[in-house]
Sequence to fold (426 residues):
Amino acid sequence: MNTAKDFEGEAARFLEAWTRSIVERDVEAARALRTADYRCILPDGRVITATEDLAMIVASQIDIRQLRTELGSAYANGGSASIRFVLSIGLEDRGRDALNGDMKLERQGGVLRASALALTNTYNDTRPAVGGRIKRLLHRLTRRRRAARPPGFQEMAYRPYQSGLDYRLPRSQPRELVYEEVDLPLPPPELWLGYNYPRHGRLHVDTMWQVLESGGFMIKPGDRILDLGCGAGRMIRHLAPLARTCEIWGADISSEHILWCQRHLTPTFHFLTNTKTPHLPFADASFRLIYCGSLFTHIDDMARAWLLELRRLLADDGCAYITIHDEDTIQQFDAMEAPPTVAAHIMRTPSWAQSKDDSDMFTIGRDENSQVFYARDWFARLLEPMFEIVAIRPGAYFYQTAILVRPRCPQGATATPRAGQSGGAA
Fold:
C-alpha cells in the first residue's frame, strides 16, 4: 500500500469495477473481483457463497439508472483492507432502498479481491415499485434453510457444488445418445463463464480443427479425446459427431459445471471433477488429443507439473492443443481504445505496467483466479523437455495464442506405444 489517499483512489476504482460488473451482468469480471472463499452476509443474516452471488448478478434486471454505489471510507493495512460504501437501488421517482456495505479486501498478486461483504439496511422508501426489488431478488435466489459452513481442506482443492450446504439431485431419466450439437441442451446463462456459449464454442472448435490440420493431425476412429477445463461443455458439445466412434471426456475443477454436464450432456460425453493437483485418474497414454482452451491462462505455480501430466496422458502419436496469453495478447490489449471489462481490469492493476514489457512470465491474481502471461519463447522452453511444437496460431482464442504440440521422445528412442496406450480410467 502507498498513502491513505492512494488507497482511497484504488478502493474507489475497485468499487466502480464491482458496480459495473453487476450492471453489465459480466459474470467473469465479477468472479475476478472475488476470492474463491468469498461470502456475503445479507441484511436478514443469511450467508451466500460466491457462486450464489454470481447467480444473482445473472438473474438481475438492474441497470445503471437503478443501482448506485458511493464510497464512504477505505482502510488498508498490509495485504488486507476494508471499505465501507452505500448501495442504493431503485428509481428516484418510484422508491429506493439503501444499504450499507462493509467489504473486506485481500491483495492477491497485487490485485484487490473481495473476501467478504456484509449488507445492512439504511433506509427504505416505501413508495411502490422498484424499491423492494433487491429484497425480493435476494429472497428468491438465496432460499437456504441452513447457513453455509466454512469449506474443508478437500473443498479448497476444487470448486465444490453449493459449498458448505447439503444438496440433493432430483431423480432423472436416462438421456438419449445424440450425435448432433443442435440436439444437446444449453446450460443456464450463469454457467456460460462470460462467453457467448453457442457462438464462441463453435468458433473456437473450428479454429482448433484448422490448427490441428495445419499440423498434419487427424482424428481417427477409436481415438480418445480430453477437454481439460471444459466448463459447461462450450467446446466439447461441438464434438458430438465424433462420439459415434471416439470416447470423449471433459474435466474441470468446478463441480457446478461438471454436474450440469453429467446430467445433460451424457451419455454422448463423459465428465469428471478434477482437483487442482496435477493428476488425472486415467492410465498413461490414454488420449490421442487433449485440448486446453484458456486453461494455462489460469495456472501459475503448477504449470510445469500440469504439462508433465499432459505428457503422461498423451499417446506417443497424439497432440495437445494449448492456448496462452503471450506478447501478442499484450500488444492487442495495449492497442485497444475501449478494452472489454476483463482486459480493462487486468490493465488497471499495478502489476500490468510493471511486468508486461520485460517478463518471462507474470500473473495478475493467483490460483485459479489468476490471469497468467508468458513470453512465448519462455513457454517454449517450459515445453521443450516434454513436447515438440508443431504449430502456433496467434489470436486463435480471442486474444490468446494457440500452441499445438506433440510428445517428445527421449533422445535415441523411437515412438512405440506405451503400456496402457488404449487404457481407460484408472
About this structure: Residues 90 and 159 are 34 Å apart (CA to CA). The chain has two domains: 4-148, 181-407. The chain has a mean pLDDT of 84. The first strand starts at residue 34 and ends at 41.
